[in-house]
Design goal:
Blueprint lengths: L1 E5 L5 E7 L5 E5 L17 H4 L6 H8 L12
Antiparallel strand pairs: 1-2, 2-3
């Protein structure tokens, strides 16, 4: 599952990847890349993602309990 915070131009500002194995990775403008991956640099088509849109509060709530492995150890 990918959670993306996308601005009005289609630029991804925050990205959280949740894998079925339990691994969670998180990227944003302060942590754009590491040995596991990177924040997407592609501008996305907002209309294409419209069916998957959730509110900002739903986004925050969904991510509240997640512990990204690439952010917990000072990476």
């Amino acid at each position: 599952m990918f959670y993306l915070a996308i601005d009005e131009t289609g630029t991804v500002r925050q990205q959280v990847e949740v894998y079925s194995s339990g691994v969670v990775l998180a990227y944003d403008e302060q942590h754009e890349q590491d040995r596991y991956g990177r924040l997407t640099y592609a501008d996305l088509d907002l209309e294409e993602f419209l069916p998957f849109e959730i509110s900002w509060q739903e986004f925050i709530d969904a991510l509240a309990e997640l512990k990204p492995i690439n952010r917990c150890r000072g990476e």
